[in-house]
Design goal:
This protein has three helices and ten strands, in the order E-E-E-E-E-E-E-H-E-E-E-H-H. The protein is of the alpha+beta class. It has a four-stranded mixed beta sheet with strand order 7-4-9-8, sandwiched between helices. Strand 1 and strand 2 form a beta hairpin. The chain is elongated and about 55 Å long.
Length: 182
């Protein structure tokens, strides 16, 4: 039988950084082997919503942008954050419209994932958006976005060739491909 009790013990916790989106803590811990240790925890103050818009011909739209933290350009599916008070599907609707100008009548909840559970508590939610209508995008002032229309098959190839490296994008693209038999 597997023991699911927490083997870690927190001795102390100290905030070392805080902004409107993330809080960083330094924690003194007792590790599962009984020895003293430290842990850094990044607590996210929003939930991530990732959306794969898909038209009737199995085409989707990728968002390209330069990612400051990676110091490189990244192709991703549309995504963004939403407060814990906001319904996560409403966050997804807002982000899809904001980044692409696309609105969808049909939404499928594809589940959730932890983006990097060794250092952060961030949770990402994945959605498939279908029955699309198109309008003007309204990106944030921190975003210089490039939209690229690709087939679902091309998006899968980009995942497999590591041209798409974002974890939420990868999981969502592969889930949708499986659902659609691609």
């Amino acid at each position: 039988m597997t023991n699911f009790e927490n083997p870690w013990k927190t001795v102390s916790s100290r905030e070392v950084y805080d902004n409107p989106w993330v809080n960083i803590r330094h924690e003194e811990v007792i590790k599962p082997n009984g020895e003293a240790g430290i842990y850094g925890v990044a607590h996210f103050k929003t939930r991530a919503a990732a959306i794969l818009p898909l038209d009737e011909n199995n085409n989707t739209w990728l968002v390209g942008q330069y990612r400051y933290t990676l110091d490189e350009y990244s192709w991703e599916i549309p995504m963004g954050g939403g407060s814990f008070e906001e319904d996560i599907q409403e966050s997804a609707r807002r982000e899809l419209k904001e980044e692409t100008g696309i609105e969808a009548k049909k939404w499928t909840d594809l589940g959730r994932l932890h983006t990097s559970n060794s250092v952060t508590d961030e949770v990402g939610f994945m959605f498939l958006a279908e029955d699309l209508t198109f309008g003007e995008s309204e990106p944030d002032d921190t975003e210089i976005l490039v939209l690229k229309k690709v087939s679902l098959e091309e998006a899968v190839r980009m995942v497999m060739d590591s041209e798409i490296t974002d974890s939420l994008s990868i999981a969502t693209i592969l889930k949708v491909a499986r659902l659609k038999g691609v």
